[in-house]
Amino acid sequence: MFLRKDDKITTTQAAIFLTDTVLGAGILTLPRSVLEAAETPDVWLSVLLGGAIILLLMLVMVKLSQRFPGKTVYEYSRSIVGTIPGAFLCLLLILYFIIVGGFEIRVLAEVAMLYLLEGTPIWAILIPFIWTGAYLACGGINSIARVFQIVFPISLFFLILSYAMSIRVFEPNHLRPLLGGGVMPVIQGLKSTILVFTGCEVIMVLIAHMQHPERAVKAVFAGIGIPIMLYLFTIVMVIGGMSVDAVLRSTWPTIDLLRSFEVTGLFFERLEFPFLVIWMMQMFCNFTSFYFSASLGVSQIFRIRFGPVLFALMPVIFISAMIPKRINDVFQLGGAIGYIGIFFFALLPALLSAIYWIRKKGLRQDV
Amino acid sequence: MFKRSMRRCCLLIAAMALISGCWSSKEIEDLSMYAGLALDVGDPTPLERELERKGATYDKKNQITATIQIVPAHSSSSNQGDSSTKGKVPEFLNTTETGDSLFEIMRTYSTRRERAVIGHHLKTIVVSNRLLQKRGIDSIMDFVLRDNDIRPSCVVFVTEGRALDTFAKNASGTVPAQQLRDFLRNRFRTNRIMEGVNLTRLDALMRTRQSFVLQNVVAAKGELELSGAGVIKGASGKWIGSLSQTDVESISWIRGDGGGGAIKTYDWRGEPIVYEIESMKSKQKAKITGDDISFHVEIKSEGRFIENWDIREDPSKPKYMEKAEQLFEERLNAMLREFMRKIQTQYKVEVAGFGESLRIQSPKTWKKVKDRWDEVFSEVPVTFDIDLHITDFGSSTK
């Protein structure tokens, strides 16, 4: 039942998998975090620039992974740097996935407790999510990808619908002037925009499961292109609808944008509720992806069966979600994850690639 | 076989735990929703005084009096259902409490009303100018901005006089809090109604610390009228004065965001003639020479010659049209001059969007002056170029 050898996904599925992994809490936190990094309406340029940088980094990951067909990063890092250092690097990666997964559901729980389920204890929100995530991950990557395929169009539709409705409060002047502060703020904004792409490391796990690993580049372009566009859209609509100053004074700017207007005549008068409910599914996908990647890692490094690992990680994820004591800690953790993410985006693949290259060209060792 | 069906049974029973519904659900019948919130300077009502005399009080300073307008007020269980409006169910119920924390006041309502109040459907907030003279708008609005039930879509008004008077019962039987919000829909008819300032917008305005205006409400005998605007000084967040209805029109001309309205003036015989605004556009151009800032505002409008009391004139003649256009332009110019005098010399605030134009057109200059923009602006020369164009004279040629 667990992880059949023929458990492969198509290129489209890989792209959606990647999109769902990247797109999560960022939609809710990005507008303010990026404006805190650079107080200018030009930050949408930072999103584009950040996305482009991520795409380049991901190409490195893809090229590296393609050298080891059918192997995940957990398996091939061992053959590049040796068993112990490889396992160490991978454990770091697993830890990172666990923290990010915990963070994503924590953000989800925070927003749900504030706007939807006031009075419901946090464990009652987190635990069903972890259980359902485990149930989904049990089915292997194929079932995960299929659920993502079903959920993604729905959440995408509601996201676009919500933003389209916010046109009524959209004020182009909020986005002007273009480059009023020069290019420097755009560069400063990168600090936070690169971070919202955390999760793209799963490509190093994903390629091993692709039916056509040679098409991975295509999957990456689609899988990162969609989040770039959606993040761009988010920034433009949220800043345009609320102005830089209002975003900076709002805890959850995207939700507040939807709370700033009422749509009379539509089935929903207040869009934040359908949006939040639908976006929960998206965050669930997001979380499951990290959960799956972490479990797969543990199972491959220690050569334990996948099922027991999945169950063993449940409390670990729960604890990691519960570590931040207050909302400030949650946001701080979000920032910290971004910085740790840079290591995994850039340094890990680069390091592995460099060592691989030296060993292959320099020592001509069989790797 | 038996074992399997047992397992199935157990599974089904376990599944029931999941269909128990929403943990945090509250029956809507058990809650009272308030559509309006009126904030006044702390001054307990006679009823409150009596309650307090009988011991119904707690540790507080009487800084703020908050009135909530609960809709609908169920007459069946409400002891306030007065019999004077015979057979007619009161549409709303006002409850007033005084204290020094808005949140505490909100919770105190629970000791006076059987259904807990909930802020999801708050539409309108009216703040009295006296309260705004005492405390900055930042502190007054802090709770409503922070609360997770109150939506930032609700609109803020000011009133000269007591805010709770604006929530009084009126002849039409409508809910004043909802009525006020719906007034804003009439912007297409008159530019004396400003674009509503919702909490998100207010939040942004307060953060920039620039001065701004809020629509003013006047109440008399239970009737409401939107009239003019209250000026909030950015630096202190306090109310410093009011603008007339004509000034509000001037703001819309300068910003070019009015949806409709009229210009009335008098012709050479002193008879009224009226221009119906069909479109208005304006361009604020900032000119910067060295450290000197100046503005040039180009106003373009098209409209209809809609009313003429002077029966001796023939408005269908092109010559008359040109003369009328000039009269309307003069009138508009006089309006704008008066408005500029008010904001530049009387109040020394900038509330007509010149700051925003400067921010967009010359971000560097803006950065230098934004912290003392009100003072800087009071010295800035502003010139107008008005071009009104009468397109037609309606369905009567005479």
Automatic annotation (TrEMBL), chain A:
Keyword entries, A-Z: Germination, Membrane, Transmembrane, Transmembrane helix, Transport
An annotated GO BP: spore germination
InterPro entries noted in UniProt: Spore_GerAB
Record's bilayer topology term: Multi-pass membrane protein
A Pfam family hit: Spore_permease
Primary localisation category: membrane
GO cellular component terms, semicolon-separated: membrane
Signal peptide span: none
Keyword Transport tagged: yes
Record-annotated membrane-spanning stretches: 12-31, 43-64, 76-100, 120-138, 150-170, 190-208, 220-244, 273-294, 306-324, 336-358
Subcellular location: Membrane
Family, similarity comment: Belongs to the amino acid-polyamine-organocation (APC) superfamily. Spore germination protein (SGP) (TC 2.A.3.9) family.
Matches recorded under NCBIfam families: 2A0309
Designated name of the protein: GerAB/ArcD/ProY family transporter
Organism from which the protein derives: Paenibacillus faecis
Organismal lineage: Bacteria, Bacillati, Bacillota, Bacilli, Bacillales
From TrEMBL, chain B:
Membrane topology: Lipid-anchor
PROSITE patterns from the UniProt entry: PROKAR_LIPOPROTEIN
Region (Disordered): 72-91
Subcellular localization, as worded in the UniProt entry: Membrane
The keyword Repressor belongs to this UniProt entry's keyword annotation: no
Keyword tags: Germination, Lipoprotein, Membrane, Palmitate, Signal
Keyword Secreted appears in the UniProt entry: no
GO CC, alphabetical: membrane
Annotated Polar residues bias: 72-86
Signal peptide: 1-25
Residue intervals of the Spore germination protein N-terminal domain: 25-214
Domain (Spore germination GerAC-like C-terminal) ranges: 227-394
Domain of life: Bacteria
Major localization class: membrane
A Gene Ontology BP annotation from the UniProt entry: spore germination
Sequence similarity: Belongs to the GerABKC lipoprotein family.
Protein name as catalogued: Ger(X)C family spore germination protein
UniProt organism field: Paenibacillus faecis
